[in-house]
Specification:
Blueprint: H1 4-17, E1 30-35, H2 38-51, E2 54-58, H3 65-74, E3 78-82, H4 91-98, E4 103-106, H5 111-125, H6 129-132, E5 134-139, H7 143-150, E6 155-160, H8 167-170, E7 175-180, H9 185-195, E8 200-203, H10 208-229, H11 237-256, H12 260-291, H13 293-313, H14 319-333, H15 337-362
Parallel strand pairs: 1-2, 1-3, 3-4, 5-6, 5-7, 7-8
Helix pairs in contact: 2-5, 2-7, 3-13, 10-11, 10-12, 11-12, 12-13, 13-14, 13-15, 14-15
């Protein structure tokens, strides 16, 4: 089912929130930036179905300048960040806003609050959506439930913590379903009692495929944690990584023995431990960037170069900005930080203009009224 009317209204209202002309709303290009956190990613994908938005995924808790360049190449009218700064680091906001791209963040203290804010925002914009979409209730840390919801259509997730449930939001939906696995049965049973009547309940079985998927995710998180530790000084990082690897090996053994539920739970535990290291590394990186202005300028130069090369490949003239970038590199290498800063600001100013012109060129000019039509 397609939500054509809903998307148009939601886009229009989001644009008015960030101060863009309402007459531009019909042709807006929206990007949702989200981490690969299973809860936020599920939420982002479901919101993108409504907004007809492009989802760009970054590693949880890690800044990647290639992501900034990718979003800049898309040159969206609006970037919606799903998740707090621990998940999608604040450097993304800073770099995109420096290029004149509108950015708004929908994030809370944890994944549960983030889902509440996101669903609340959509309902404020288009209350009728509660009649068309099914509200899927799930425990925010039930990985299996998130995987299930991501594969469903016509739903939007509202996450719970312990047995807390935002009934103000839940009561607005005509159709409510509960999604649970063996890892959230007790919590969701208490939620079920609070909700009363539900459209349906889905119990997610832990299959070999699901167990294998989360084992792969755990492997990726552990590998990322190892890479980040090489350039950081994080207390107890090695012990945490050892513990994560131990649980991962136990998960693989359980998988071989056909104990898929046990394998799944151990792999999720390994992933969560690795994410503690990743979060600490991300925080340390941001502190370094804030404390060392030269390092921050080096990062900006790297980001701007990637952006300009992408724009150049698309036929946009950035020759002046590329020349200024070379001057900025030379100035920074010579220790002339202020000169490098001024040049970078000049580059950003030029790119702002070019990106804005491209966005404006996407907006269709209104046709002249024909005979009998009112101007």
């Amino acid at each position: 089912m397609r939500w054509v009317g809903a998307a148009g209204i939601i886009v229009l209202l989001i644009m008015s929130i960030v101060g863009l002309p309402e007459t531009q709303a019909a042709t807006q290009n929206i990007v949702i930036l989200v981490s690969d956190n299973e809860a936020d990613l599920t939420l982002a994908q479901k919101i993108s179905d409504v907004l007809n938005a492009t989802v760009v995924v970054t590693k949880w808790g890690v800044y990647n300048d290639t992501i900034t360049a990718e979003i800049s190449e898309l040159n969206p009218d609006l970037v919606i960040i799903i998740g707090g700064p621990l998940a999608v680091v604040s450097l993304y906001e800073e770099e995109l806003q420096a290029l004149g791209i509108n950015v708004t963040r929908v994030g809370g203290r944890d994944r549960v609050e983030t889902s509440e804010k996101a669903v609340e925002l959509i309902l404020q914009m288009y209350p009728e959506l509660a009649e068309n979409l099914t509200l899927a209730l799930a425990y925010g840390w039930d990985y299996a439930a998130m995987m299930q919801i991501r594969n469903q259509s016509g739903v939007i997730p509202l996450l719970v913590k312990n047995d807390t449930l935002n009934m103000t939001i839940a009561s607005k939906f005509r159709n409510v379903e509960i999604v649970r696995s063996r890892f959230s049965e007790k919590v969701m049973e208490r939620v079920r009692e609070k909700v009363g009547n539900v459209s349906r309940e889905i119990f997610v079985n832990i299959t070999a495929e699901r167990a294998e998927d989360v084992i792969k995710v755990a492997e990726e998180r552990i590998e990322l944690a190892k890479q980040l530790v090489e350039n950081a000084t994080i207390p107890s990082a090695e012990k945490l990584i050892e513990e994560a690897e131990k649980k991962l090996e136990m998960a693989k053994l359980a998988y071989k023995e056909g104990k898929y539920g046990e394998a799944f739970g151990l792999a999720v535990a390994a992933k969560n431990i690795a994410e503690v290291v990743i979060a600490r590394a991300g925080e340390e990186f941001e502190k370094k960037i804030s404390a060392n202005y030269s390092l921050k300028l080096e990062l900006k130069i790297r980001v701007l170069e990637k952006i300009m090369l992408r724009l150049k490949a698309r036929g946009i003239d950035v020759s002046t900005e590329l020349q200024l970038l070379e001057q900025a590199k030379q100035a920074l290498n010579a220790g002339n930080v202020q000169i490098a800063k001024n040049l970078i600001e000049e580059i950003e100013k030029g790119l702002k203009v070019k990106l804005k012109e491209e966005r404006e060129s996407r907006i269709k000019k209104p046709e002249k009224p024909g005979r009998g039509e009112r101007p």
